[in-house]
Design goal:
There is one protein chain. The strands form five sheets. This protein has a five-stranded parallel sheet, with helices on both faces. Strands 11-12-17-14-15 form a five-stranded antiparallel sheet, with no helix packed on it. The chain has three domains: about 5-70, no CATH class; about 80-355, no CATH class; about 365-460, Sandwich (Jelly Rolls), CATH 2.60.120. It is globular. Helix 4 runs parallel beside helix 14 and helix 8 (about 175-190) packs parallel to helix 11 (about 290-295). Strand 11 and strand 12 (about 375-380) form a beta hairpin. The longest helix is centred in the first third of the chain and has 17 residues, at about 130-145. By secondary structure, it is an alpha+beta fold. Helices cover about 25% and strands about 20% of the residues. Pfam families: ALGX (PF16822). Its main location: periplasm. Keywords: Alginate biosynthesis, Periplasm, Signal, Transferase. This is AlgX/AlgJ SGNH hydrolase-like domain-containing protein. It is found in: Periplasm.
């Protein structure tokens, strides 16, 4: 690695001198060089230098080759306000009213999952293991008190056997072992649900398929600042499959003449049993999170997680899709890192999820098509409440954005844009809350999509 790529921890050090033994660099009679203060404060097993000062992602090195991000992995505060709890509880109740139980999994930070490998100098950043655990516990307690079924992800990770790595050493994602531990805790919580006894269980078999090295941008960043190779994100890989008996491919006939196969045409039995939404933690195939859930619950799992979708990409794509509308799951598992702020973009995303999760968008508005990409409806005379939501349905998948134009009785207007990122599913369904406006003065709404939409495009009102 070129020496000019190295950075120092504290103060500037002579890179040329670092490249040679001290005696050769200074001569046999030269005075002994002063010890490097950075090396004393931030000892490195891999000759790493300046990691805490890396502008893109500051990192510190812990024990056993484990690295922690400063701003995400060892932070002490996580933005879970009372408003966040309230809206998550509303989402949970709305889903439950439609027959789906929300199970929320706040992924613990790496320091919460692997506190025993933190370096001693983590305290210089204000980190305290007991306080961090108390913060996580408080969030779980508040969610559960509000009626949200919540998985204690930190306890799951702390159950790892001695020497096991639930997270990768030089990356912030969990390994297949971390995903397995989370699934064990998740299965316990699902078994406590009132409807658990009514769910049809199957036998699943999980076998190891080898080991795999995951791609890690974080590791690449760390390696650029280290002399020796840092640990690669290697994990055992597993494959979970339904047993042949449950598939009806073997074994004795069960007496009803169907060879023991599942009834694929039953009503409640044919529903999706468990749907998973979330981030790259769930979307990472080598972690086998969905497979582990099936292994420990005996339930079929459909994985809708999206890498790079941030807090809402996956669940928003799923809840606004036809898949969800026509086949609501018994259980919806929503995984999200604890450090994600669910109110980062205000309350609109959660209010949109609540509207999409409900069955209350039953008041169609008298929609007129005013252009190939534009529809509108009058709102004067409509009994609007502050908690209502306008539902714009493009009539099919494809549109990436919807621009809502609200007109008021005094001639003024406001514009709001909803846009789906490139990684999200472009379902063509957009929900815009009206709680930011005086609803008694709203006269009309028009929606412009980013592309032409069919004649069936429509507007509807979702009641609070």
């Amino acid at each position: 690695m070129p020496w000019n790529n190295l950075r120092t921890g504290l103060g500037a050090l002579c890179l040329c001198a670092c490249a040679l033994p001290a005696a050769a660099a200074q001569g046999p009679d030269a005075p002994e060089a002063a010890p490097d203060p950075a090396a004393a404060l931030y000892p490195s097993q891999f000759g790493c230098s300046g990691l805490p000062e890396v502008a893109q992602t500051p990192v510190i090195e812990g024990r056993d080759g484990v690295f922690y991000r400063v701003y995400a992995d060892i932070r002490m505060h996580h933005p879970f306000s009372d408003k966040t709890i309230e809206l998550l509880a509303r989402l949970s109740r709305t889903l439950q009213d439609q027959g789906t139980t929300l199970v929320f999994l706040p992924i613990p930070t790496k320091s919460q999952a692997m506190p025993g490998r933190l370096p001693e100098f983590a305290r210089h950043y204000g980190y305290k293991t007991d306080v961090s655990a108390a913060v996580y516990q408080d969030i779980v307690d508040r969610l559960r008190a509000a009626g949200v079924v919540t998985i204690h992800g930190q306890n799951a990770m702390l159950a790892a056997e001695a020497g096991a790595m639930p997270y990768f050493q030089a990356d912030f994602h969990w390994s297949s072992e971390g995903a397995r531990l989370a699934a064990v805790e998740l299965a316990r919580e699902i078994d406590r649900l009132p409807q658990a006894a009514d769910l049809e269980r199957s036998e699943f078999e999980t076998r190891q398929t080898g080991t795999q090295v995951a791609f890690s941008g974080l590791r690449q960043l760390i390696q650029r600042n280290c002399l020796h190779q840092v640990p690669e994100p290697v994990t055992a890989t597993w494959k979970t499959e339904k047993s042949t008996l449950d598939l009806g491919l073997g074994g004795e006939d069960d007496g009803d003449g169907d060879g023991g196969g599942l009834d694929l045409f039953g009503d409640d039995e044919s529903r999706v049993q468990v749907a998973v939404v979330g981030t790259s933690f769930s979307d990472m195939a080598l972690a086998n999170f969905d497979g582990w859930i099936s292994q420990y619950t005996g339930l079929d799992v459909v994985n809708y997680a999206i890498t790079g979708g941030n807090q809402f990409g996956s669940i928003l794509s799923y809840l606004t899709s036809e898949d969800f509308a026509r086949d609501r799951p018994h259980v919806l598992v929503w995984e999200n890192p604890i450090y994600n702020n669910l109110l980062q973009y205000g309350d609109q995303p959660l209010l949109e999820l609540i509207a999409a999760a409900g069955g209350a968008c039953a008041r169609p508005l008298d929609t007129r098509r005013t252009g190939p990409d534009r529809i509108e409806a009058r709102l004067d005379g409509t009994d609007l409440a502050p908690g209502d939501v306008i539902f714009a349905d493009a009539g099919g998948e494809g549109p990436v954005s919807a621009e809502f134009h609200f007109a008021f009785d005094d001639g003024s207007a406001r514009v709001q844009l909803l846009e789906r990122g490139e990684r999200l599913r472009h379902t063509g369904r957009f929900y815009m809350p009206v709680n930011a406006y005086p609803t008694d003065r709203l006269a009309a709404v028009s929606v412009t999509f980013d592309r032409p939409v069919p004649e069936g495009a429509s507007l509807a009102l979702c009641a609070n």
